[in-house]
Amino acid sequence: MYKKTNRTTPSRYANQRTHYDKDVIHAILDEALFCTISYSHENQPFSIPQSFVRIDGSIYLHGSVGSHLIRTISDGRPVCISVMLADDIVVAKTAFHHSINYRSVVIFSKGEVVQDEDLKYSAFKALTEKMVPGSWDYLKPMTPQEMAKTTAVGFTLQEVSAKIRQGSPGHEASEMDLPIWTGLIPIKPARQKPIPDAHGAKVPLPRHLQY
User: Fold this and answer.
1) pLDDT (0 to 100) of residue 166
2) Does residue 168 lie within any of the structural domains?
3) What is the DSSP string of 157-200?
């Protein structure tokens, strides 16, 4: 269980929708492919989408050693990282009660460059496998030169919480007899059949890409 803090306690539905359980939070982070990392630089706010992966109690981002983003967020400044999985549009009898079924995580942390080469390699492998499961051993191995050109930044999961909304639309008692359709419109993303480029069309589709 992660420790509850003032920053990880939402102002609304704190008791009904907020979760600090590690299994709940880790499951959301493992399903989500992208996060948004927010920080301040020279009194200017920035909010940048990034791919990421979780290994144990940390998440890892990577980028070019020359990336302004990577160099900035790896200097120990405080950042806020958010993740959201949208599951359904919740259709009620009134626009006021329309909502979204979602699972989200907010993390407050500080970045640290991964210096351990084995952990850095593991982070790259884990991220590759998350984005394209089963692909790491199929691909041309990553070279030492490619490793040297890439920076991995880790963020520990210490100050973190999840907020989840699931279920049917809410209704006022006075609305129940209105002849208006209500329910859920699923919007979960799904992997579709891969589309080859000119080079890929010359090679049989590997088993790990046959969704």
Assistant:
1) 95
2) yes
3) -SEEEEEEE-SPPP--GGGTTS----EEEE-----------TTG
163 part of a folded domain? yes
pLDDT tens, residue by residue, 77-115: 999 999 999 999 999 999 999 999 999 999 999 999 999
Q: Are 40 and 46 in contact (CB under 8 A)?
A: yes
Is 58 inside a domain boundary? yes
Q: 73: which 2 tokens?
A: 């967020």
What secondary structure, in 3-state letters, does 64-121 show? ECCCHHHHHHCCCCEEEEEEEEEEEEEECCCHHHCEEEEEEEEEEEEEEECCCHHHHH
Domain region containing 28: 14-209
- Beta bridge partners, 107, equal 81, 160
Specify the CATH number for the domain of residue 114.
Answer: 2.30.110.10
